[in-house]
Amino acid sequence: MRPISWKLPKQHFSFCCPLQVLRVSLLLLFTILAATQSIANAADKPRGGEIREVFIPMPDGVQLAVDLYVPANLESDEKLPIIIEYNPYRKDEGRGSRFGLYQYFVENDYIVARIDIRGTGRSTGVVVQHEYTDQEQEDAEVAIDWLSKRPYSNGNIGMFGISWSGFNSIHLAMRNPPALKAIIAVDSADDLYEDDVHYMDGIMHVDAWEIDMDIANAQPASPDFIIDDAYYRDRFNTDPWMVQYKRQQRDGPFWNRASLNEDYASIKVPTYVIGGWYDGYRDSVPRMLENLKAPVKGMIGPWQHTFPNWGYPGKGIEWRAEAVRWFDHWLRDADNGIMDEPKFSVFVRNWHRPGTDAPEITGTWRYEDGWPIKRAKSEVLYPSAAHTLSNKPEKPQEHKLKYKPTTGIVAGGPVMWFGDLAWDQQPADGQSMVYDSGTLEEDLEILGMPVANLQVSADAPHANWIVRLSDVAPDGQVSLVSAAGLNGTHRNSAENPEDLVPGQIYPLKIDMHFTSWVFPKGHRIRLAVNNALWPMLWPSPYPMTTSLHLGKGTKLTLPVIPYEKRPAPHYPEPVEYADYPGYGEGESETPSGYAEINTVERNYLTQTVKVHARDAGYSDYPWGRVHYLASIYHTTNDKDPAHTAVDAEYKYTWDLKDNRELVFQGLFNFHSDVDNFYYEFTRKLFENGTLVKERTWEESIPRDYQ
Question: What is the mean pLDDT of residues 316-328?
Answer without folding.
Answer: 97
